[in-house]
Amino acid sequence: MPVEVVGVKDVLKGLAFIDEDMYNRIRAAIRPLMETVESKSKGYAPANSEVLSGWSKPISSDVAYRPFPKYNAQTVKGGIGYKEGRNRTFKNGFQVENYVYNISAAGRIYETAGRQNPQGRAPFTSISPGGGTLAFEKQGKSKSRSTRSYNSNNPFAGYQFVTDLPPLVSQPKIKDIRAQGKKTKGRLIYRAFAEESPKIYDAITKAINATATHFNKVTEKKVA
């Protein structure tokens, strides 16, 4: 016995309408908020005089190794921006991509230094314990650059660098959305987003509800 399904095309059109309408509403609602995150992130980048003096000094051109990225406030701020991505649909929903990025090497270091090792990485080379100097032993290989030991004339370089920076700022825990974690801490974008995220998630919720309300009204008119 044949089964006739009525209204499938209308349902599919309705789903497409919901997807596009919700995407546009969310994008419009969070754009000014994400631009605020971008602006705040740039504002949290310290001046050259506010970081360790050695970090902002010019790098010699005759070094035979890859130098540590020099800090320059203008470069760090210029490497922070906001971008609207695309709408991607999945079987169980869709994703609206909007993000603030940080592309400068020094900016990324300032953002995340100390996440893995709050006291800085231990030195690779052992120091002779003469004159009361603390000796460090050579460490084994590490899977991650963040945990790999380094070769420095100053055994306390990592500690001094990380502890001179402001504390890492954690994201607030939002029920059913996200939990706190090591990878959600930072000093620039993550700090700004931690402050603005309650407003952003509230705007997204309101945009979704507005789409549902609008769709219901349009559907009621067609049925009537």
Note down, in words, how this protein is organized:
The structure is a single chain. By secondary structure, the protein is mostly helical. It has two domains: 1-57 and 67-117 and 188-224, no CATH class; 120-162, no CATH class. The protein contains six helices and two strands. The chain has helices at 8-43, 53-56, 73-78, 105-112, 157-164, 189-223, and strands at residues 80-90, 93-102. A two-stranded antiparallel sheet has the order 1-2. Helix 1 (8-43) packs antiparallel against helix 6. It is elongated and about 75 Å long. Residues 1-8 and 124-143 have low confidence and may be disordered.
- Distance between the ends: 32 Å
Q: How many separate domains? A: 2
The strand count comes to 2
Helix and strand run: HHHEEHHH
Strand content: 5-15%
Helix content: 40-55%
Strand order of the largest sheet: 1-2
The computed structural class is: mainly alpha
Instruction: State mean pLDDT (0 to 100 scale).
Output: 76
Task: Indicate the overall shape.
Answer: elongated
Largest sheet: 2 strands, antiparallel
Catalogue the unreliable spans. Answer: 1-8, 124-143
Descriptors:
mainly alpha, 224 residues, 2 domains, two-stranded antiparallel ribbon, 43% helix
Chain-wise SSE layout:
Blueprint: H1 8-43, H2 53-56, H3 73-78, E1 80-90, E2 93-102, H4 105-112, H5 157-164, H6 189-223
Antiparallel strand pairs: 1-2
Summarize the structure.
This protein has 224 residues and is mainly α. It contains 6 helices and 2 strands.
